[in-house]
Amino acid sequence: LAVNALNSAQAVLIPTRPEIADLRSIKLFLTVLERIKQEINPDLETLGVLVTYYNRELGPHKAAIKAMREAGLPLLTVGIEEGDHEIEDQVSEKSHPIDIPGDPRTRT
Q1: What CA–CA distance (Å, rounded) separates 7 from 105?
Q2: Is residue 12 classed as helix, strand or coil in its secondary structure?
Q3: Range of the domain at 71
Q4: Is the N or the C terminus of the chain less surrounded, counting Cβ atoms within 10 Å?
Q5: DSSP 46-90
Q6: Residue 22, by phi and psi: left (phi above 0), alpha (psi -120 to 50) or beta?
Q7: Residue 107: its pLDDT value, please?
Q8: Is position 44 within any domain?
Q9: 4-36 per-position pLDDT tens digit
């Protein structure tokens, strides 16, 4: 995101895929975001990290969620699951709550 956009924003939502490689990017982004809050926009609110393309059957996805939690990232308790993409559903993706292993606020 451009610094100008974050300067004008009231809040920021951080979308990410549940992959270990994305964890590094999120940590870097949060570092930059904290600097912007300190120097430019102290009222900027971090809404949280929105996990996208989550597949509860994949071990690496579960491991990535666990690593994000252990890193103290502000994970949201909802996300966008990876799913079937039918022709008539190409324009919008299906969104609904997901399980985040170990989080009592999510369904089991």
Answers
A1: 32
A2: strand
A3: 10-97
A4: C
A5: EEEEEEEEE-TT-HHHHHHHHHHHHTT--EEEEEEE-----GGGS
A6: alpha
A7: 52
A8: yes
A9: 888 889 999 999 998 888 888 888 899 989 999
Domain annotation covers residue 105 = no
Number of domains in the chain: 1
Judge whether 14 and 46 are in contact, CB under 8 Å: yes
User: Are the C-beta atoms of 79 and 50 separated by less than 8 Å?
Assistant: yes
3 part of a folded domain: no
Tell me the pLDDT band of 106, cut-offs 50, 70 and 90.
Answer: low
pLDDT digits (tens, 9 = 90+) for 32-69: 899 999 999 999 999 989 888 888 888 888 888 888 88
In a domain, 35, yes or no: yes
pLDDT digits (tens, 9 = 90+) for 63-92: 888 888 888 888 887 766 666 444 334 434
Phi and psi angles of residue 38, each rounded to the nearest 5 degrees, phi first? -75, -40
CA distances (Å), origin 44, targets 1, 13, 21, 26: 14, 11, 26, 17
